[in-house]
Amino acid sequence: MEIVEELWDRGEVPYCDGLYRADGSSWELCVDGPGAYRPDAGQPIPFRVGGPFDVGPVLAEYGSCEVDTYFESPLPDGSGWVLGGGGGMGNVGHLARLDADRSLRWVALMESSNPFLGVRHDGTLAVFVNDWRNLLTLDLASPVLR
Fold first, then answer.
1. Closest CA to 135 of 89, 97, 84
2. Is 107 within 8 Å of 85 (Cβ atoms)?
3. Interstrand relation of 12-14 and 135-139 (parallel, antiparallel or unpaired)
4. Using an 8 Å Cβ cutoff, are 52 and 131 in contact?
5. C-alpha distances in angstroms, 85 versus 69, 75, 123?
6. pLDDT number for residue 43
7. Contact 87/108 with Cβ under 8 angstroms?
């Protein structure tokens, strides 16, 4: 079992902006938090996937944090689930994608996104809403999010 899966099973994720896959690969995330410059509700949350990195040094430097799941939603095509919530001191948000058997496919931690409270689906698009009612739209068909 990979370290990300072990952490997930304990209700934890690495405490650094990143997209962490169950297969052990990790990708940098560039997510500008809503509190920094988006106090108005309903604004889009920028989300960019950067380059790969090794999760080991991240865990050694930043550790992990507990996350709380606030919602779960089945994917419209029946291929699995998405879920999300928060953690940390109220500024942390996380999203995860599970397979149909509820095994972890990936989890994304965003230190400044604020907690995510829900999702709506539009085909392969998942539109997540955080506690400031700001929106994060992800195409779950994109290769890094499959």
1. 84
2. no
3. unpaired
4. no
5. 4, 17, 22
6. 78
7. no
- pLDDT tens digit sequence for 116-128: 999 999 999 999 9
Tokens for 15? Answer: 């405490």
Dump the DSSP string for the chain: --HHHHHHHTTEEESSSEEEETTS-EEEEEE--HHHH--STTPBPPEEEEEEE-HHHHHHHH-EEEEEEEEEEE-TTSSEEEEEEEETTTTEEEEEEEETTS-EEEEEEETTS--EEEEEEETTEEEEEETT--EEEEETTSGGG-
| Single-letter code of the amino acid located at 132 | W
pTM, two decimal places: 0.92
